[in-house]
Write a structure and sequence with these properties.
The structure holds two protein chains of two kinds. Chain A is α/β, with parallel strands linked by helices. Chain A has helices spanning 46-53, 76-86, 102-112, 117-131, 146-159, 176-192, 204-207, 232-247, and strands at residues 2-13, 20-31, 35-39, 61-66, 69-70, 87-91, 164-168, 197-200, 212-217, 220-226. In chain A, strand 1 (2-13) and strand 2 form a beta hairpin. The longest helix of chain B is centred in the C-terminal third of the chain and has 44 residues, at 512-555. The chains are: A alpha/beta, B alpha+beta.
Chain lengths: 253, 645
């Protein structure tokens, strides 16, 4: 079953005299239960793609369907409602509220869906224990390490059981140990809970955890790689090779 | 782009953000200028002559300088911190600190000159309005004329340029103390780190509430008779003042976050969006503004309290005059009474003259008085009262062994409670046993006889005659005749009053109307001055709270972005913001109103007879004006939230 279908999406900024086209006709299909990475050099439009797919930004033209709902036709109010129920987010800079504790941050998405307290606490305990942050539940974000913050953010993305989770450079600010911890957990979630994850990254190691990598360049899909039965290491090498061909910008940032 | 262009660009951009600052600046200049104009205005001489209007307006203008000066300096320090990044950037591209200071000063200068020009024009026009208000509240019948005073202009210019100089110095100091790196961090360093509530804070919180409540409790007991000596009364007042002010500070420092924390703990981590925005914010933010909020609360409580009290006495002017002078006119001597009566007849004003004797006598009143009056009187239980015959007291009837007390002022009643029935002894050669059967509210004779509020003893004609023969001559007044003249037709009172005034009689002859007008004039001027001082304080403190909220909303913008990405709508967020502003503006407002309520409650009867109407009017005007700033800040938040995604 396709959870996300994007057809011919265009996105441009600026006015008609000075137009900058960022996405030029991207077609994309993501099936339920997939773990997809989007890669590409700086300025290739990967974050813009994630933003329009996740309804934070509007497309200039084209159609996006998530779980059989046409996103481009929705009003802001409906979009917010949709994000609230169907989508989960993990961002590079964690996006946790400083004034709330770990537990409060995580339970936030549940408070709008009016989930009963008991169920909310059970879900919280389970997910937080899986991610290894249950002990930290009464701490404030500024008392946590980057990895802990990102895991908190991940639990928040999963807690309301969304049909699709978007991760924008989730490992961008983490050291390698925390990064692999997080990616392992994401992989776990993907396999055990059948969560669909779309991740934007420029890090080939991070991408190698996913099952499917889409490369974009200059606003268009350049190529796609499938992990298939490959080992992660082999897949990583494939990705490196493709990236090399893509533009020789292996180590931007 | 040269430096001049930079100045103008900055100004244009800043005006959009700081329109309220410009407004407050214009308002301050206008208010100050019109006050000083009034001070120099010849039209004010009417008011000045009788009640030292000039002095109070002068004092007010000095206070106004203090309020406006502190406000402008404070607002400036808020703004310069906001521009830290920009200053850092200018330094980074190689501008010297002197040049940056010059740039900022030039900007401020233009803003200042512009605001002052507008403010002075507005103040000039406003001064006529103010004069009209002043004449209205003081009951002076004069036409308010525009009058331009060069002195006032000069004084305004000097005062505001001194303030400008101070601001300039501060900016220069701020800039010179900064390094490029620290400038980039100014906004974040003022932000307070989020911490857990400590036990110490809980203790502070509880202690703050205890202090405030104890202050309130003592204030309610202040005039109830528990504190009889002057020293006790004075120390009680000092205690109230100290405990309430310190308590307020601790309340903001600890109690608010302590209470918010309890509410939050109960939610066990499951917070709704409006709780996220309101609770967590007041928990951490109010604390860091504790000193500012304490000052705002205390001064506004003071303003509301004083304004209410002067309004109470203004409102009760007629009633007070009636109590002091129960007839339209009370004459000091037979001769004056005749002169006045003749003048009235000449003008064909019908009147009624009443004249009777008032005798002073000692009463042994131990049985109807509460004890503990050592401090007020040497011989406890002996009261010296004016005595009149029932024949001269309408609607009162007593038997031979009875006495009715009438017209006891509320004020004295608080200090010297007397029961309305019981046995007393009339202390003459052969003491007479009498029985007090009732206490009436009517005032029967003028305050010349009643020592400013003691009741009058009404006895039967028999007893009165008996007393007359045996009275103690040492106690009697020089003139023991009460001579009252009442005008038959109410319409002629004013005319009669004019005649009375033109006759220029001695101090013992009094007019009820003139006395009421006199009080209205004094209190009207008081209200006028306090009202405008209160208004300027309200506007400036409201602005400061608004600026603080402006900063806060921008600091929190990233949170709104997160929340909106998570799927909360603008409406959801706004609901939380409204609640938050309700707390942010509501808590200081309610505390201020409570403080002033208890202050007024403890001593209002010293000022007049009507508590609720005047107090509620003052309080609701204050609340409405204050809410405007809350409303404006919600609008600003709306903008920030809208832009956050």
């Amino acid at each position: 079953m396709n959870i996300l279908e994007a057809r011919k999406i265009y996105k441009s900024y600026g006015n008609k005299f000075n137009k900058q086209e960022v996405l030029s006709g991207i077609d994309l299909t993501i099936e339920a239960g997939e773990f997809v990475s989007i890669m590409g050099p700086s300025g290739s439009g990967k974050t813009t793609l994630l933003n329009v797919l996740s309804s934070i930004d509007h497309v200039s033209s084209g159609s996006i369907r998530i779980a059989d709902a046409e996103m481009t036709q929705m009003k802001d109010q409906q979009l917010a409602e949709f994000r609230k129920k169907q989508l989960g987010f993990v961002f590079q800079d964690y996006n946790l509220l400083d004034t709330l504790t770990v537990k409060e941050n995580i339970l936030l998405p549940l408070s709008i869906s009016k989930t009963p307290k008991k169920e909310a606490f059970e879900r919280f305990q389970q997910l937080a224990e899986d991610m290894g942050i249950y002990e930290l539940r009464d701490k404030y974000p500024n008392e946590l390490s980057g990895g802990q913050k990102q895991r908190t953010s991940a639990v928040r993305a999963f807690i309301h059981e969304p049909s699709l989770i978007f991760a924008d450079e989730p490992t961008g600010a983490l050291d390698s140990k925390s990064a692999s911890d997080l990616l392992n957990k994401l992989q776990d979630f993907n396999q055990k809970r059948k969560a669909t994850i779309v991740m934007v990254t420029h890090d080939p190691v991070a991408a190698s955890y996913s099952r499917h990598v889409i490369f974009i360049k200059d606003g268009q899909i350049y190529t796609q790689l499938n992990k298939g039965a490959l080992e992660r290491k082999m897949f990583f090498e494939d990705i490196m090779k493709t990236q090399g061909v893509l533009g020789g910008v292996k180590h931007e940032h | 782009m040269n430096i001049n262009q930079l100045v103008f660009r900055n100004l244009k951009k800043n005006l959009k953000n700081y329109y309220l600052y410009v407004f407050a600046l214009v308002f301050s200049v206008a208010l100050y200028f019109s006050f000083v104009t009034l001070q120099y205005s010849p039209a004010l001489d009417d008011v000045k002559g009788s009640i030292k209007g000039g002095a109070s307006i002068k004092a007010a203008s000095v206070l106004l300088i203090a309020i406006v000066g502190i406000f402008l300096l404070y607002a400036n320090s808020i703004f310069i911190k906001r521009r830290g990044k920009e200053i850092g950037l200018l330094q980074l591209i190689g501008m010297t600190k002197q040049k940056i200071a010059k740039l900022l000063n030039a900007e401020n200068f233009i803003l200042y000159v512009f605001s002052m020009a507008v403010g002075i024009i507005a103040g000039f026009i406003g001064s006529k309005l103010m004069l009209m208000v002043l004449f209205k509240v003081t009951g002076v019948n004069a036409i308010a004329n525009l009058h331009f005073s060069g002195m006032a202009l000069l004084q305004t210019l000097i005062v505001f340029f001194i303030i400008y100089g101070l601001i300039m110095l501060r900016n220069r100091r701020f800039i010179s103390k900064q390094t490029i790196l620290s400038l980039f961090r100014t906004t974040s360093s003022t932000e307070q780190r989020v911490k857990k509530i400590s036990v110490f804070e809980i203790i502070i919180g509880v202690f703050g509430i205890v202090l405030i409540s104890s202050g309130y409790y003592i204030s309610s007991q202040l005039f109830s008779g528990s504190y009889t000596s002057m020293l006790e009364l004075f120390s009680a007042m000092i205690y109230i003042l100290a405990s309430v002010i310190i308590g307020t500070f601790l309340f903001y420092k600890g109690s608010v976050s302590f209470i918010a924390n309890i509410v939050r703990k109960r939610k066990n981590g499951y917070l709704a969006i409006h709780e996220v925005l309101s609770l967590s914010s007041i928990m951490f933010r109010l604390k860091s503004n504790a000193l500012l909020l304490t000052i705002i609360t205390t001064v506004s409580a003071l303003a509301i309290g004083l304004l209410s009290l002067s309004y109470i006495s203004y409102y009760s002017a007629e009633k007070t005059a009636e109590q002091q002078i129960p007839s339209h006119f009370v004459m000091g001597s037979e001769k004056e009474a005749n002169t006045f009566a003749r003048a009235l007849s000449d003008k064909h004003i019908a009147y009624e003259k009443k004249q009777f004797k008032v005798i002073q006598a000692d009463f042994d009143a131990k049985k109807i008085m509460d004890s503990e009056l050592e401090s007020l009187k040497k011989d406890p239980g002996v009261l010296t009262l004016s005595v009149i015959s029932e024949k001269n007291a309408p609607h009162i009837h007593v038997e031979n062994n009875e006495v009715i007390l009438s017209g006891y002022s509320d004020l004295l009643k608080k200090f010297m409670p007397i029961q309305s029935s019981g046995d007393v002894k009339l202390l003459i050669k052969q003491p007479l046993d009498l029985k007090v059967i009732d206490m009436k509210k009517d005032y029967l004779i003028s305050y010349r006889f009643t020592a400013g509020g003691m009741p009058v003893a009404v006895v039967s004609q028999n007893v009165f005659e008996q007393l007359d023969q045996n009275k103690d001559p040492k106690l009697q007044l020089e003139n023991n005749q009460y001579i009252a003249i009442n005008v038959n037709d109410e319409k002629h009172i004013e005319q009669a009053n004019d005649i009375f005034t033109s006759l220029k009689m001695g101090d013992d002859s009094m007019s009820q109307l003139a006395s009421a007008q006199q009080q209205k004039q004094t209190m009207g001027l008081m209200m006028f001055v306090l009202g405008f001082l209160g208004l300027s304080f309200l506007v400036t403190s409201g602005c400061i709270l608004y600026f603080k909220q402006m900063n806060e909303s921008e600091e929190e913008q990233s949170s709104y972005t997160i929340l909106r990405k998570l799927g909360f709508t603008e409406k959801d967020l706004l609901k939380g913001i409204r609640l938050k502003q309700l707390f942010n503006f509501g808590i200081p407002l309610i505390i201020g109103l409570l403080h002033s309520y208890f202050a007024i409650q403890s001593g209002w009867f010293l000022f007049g007879g009507e508590l609720w109407t005047p107090m509620l009017i003052v309080m609701s005007i204050y609340t409405v004006l204050y809410s405007i700033f809350g409303f404006l800040s919600v609008q600003y938040y709306k903008k920030v939230i809208k832009e956050s995604l």
